Amino acid sequence: MLRCVLLDDELLALQYLKLLCEQISGVEVVKVYDNPEKFILEKDELDFDVCVSDIEMPVINGLQIANLLSNKHLIFTTAYRDYAVESYNLEVIDYITKPVQKDRLEKAFRKIEKLTKESKPVSEYITLNSEKGKSIINTNDIFYITVSDVDSRDKIIHFKDESTLLIKNNSFEKLKETLPSRKFTRINKREIIAMNCVNYYSHDEIVSKILIDGKPKTFTIGINFRNEFLMLL
């Protein structure tokens, strides 16, 4: 969830901007300000990730606000095109000319989400409930994960050294949330594969780098999972 503060000295523009933000999923409006001086006085007490601000305002303009928010994401909304160069020099996320369109504003928020995910450190280690108890697993050692034939609620992790570990009562959805998102993908209803084990692929088949009994292990790509796989290549 992106927590945002809205800043515009024009009350109608501020109300319209708030309405748009409330229609965008993953965005929460923390507070709105029609007075930039009041915002500056209160900004250190607020918990927010993004400031959506007008530029032309009395006493303090949006460019000055940007210089005070070095650790926050900033989106400018303005009726003037004259500040575009200065805005990008300040590394502003987006410069949106009024009237603000919902799709353009949403695009700016999605860009922030992407930047946030990419900058977030990813741990190589995860902890899962296994047949042996709590198991700490190095995700770099994982080859692929399958559904257990005995109980579909359980999953089997197959490691690159050909050893296995039974994971108790864990869905693929929960595993996908736990695993590093850029390193693993679900390829069909029964399997998740480590992307660094992919050697080459065709329309419906993956040939891995890992040999089983001297031959490369192959996987079937389900039609409903193909796009997710291709996005990570």
TrEMBL record:
SUPFAM superfamilies found in the cross-reference section: CheY-like
Q: Does the keyword Oxidoreductase apply?
A: no
Where does the record place the modification 4-aspartylphosphate? D54
Name the UniProt key words of this record, in alphabetical order: DNA-binding, Phosphoprotein
Q: Which Gene3D superfamilies match?
A: 3.40.50.2300, LytTr DNA-binding domain
What Pfam family does this protein match (any one)? Response_reg
Q: Please state what the protein is called.
A: DNA-binding response regulator
Query: Highest taxon of the source?
Result: Bacteria
State the organism of origin. Answer: Paenimyroides viscosum
Does the entry feature the keyword Transmembrane, yes or no? no
Residue ranges annotated for the Response regulatory domain, each copy included = 3-113
Q: Name one GO biological process term.
A: phosphorelay signal transduction system
GO MF annotation list: DNA binding
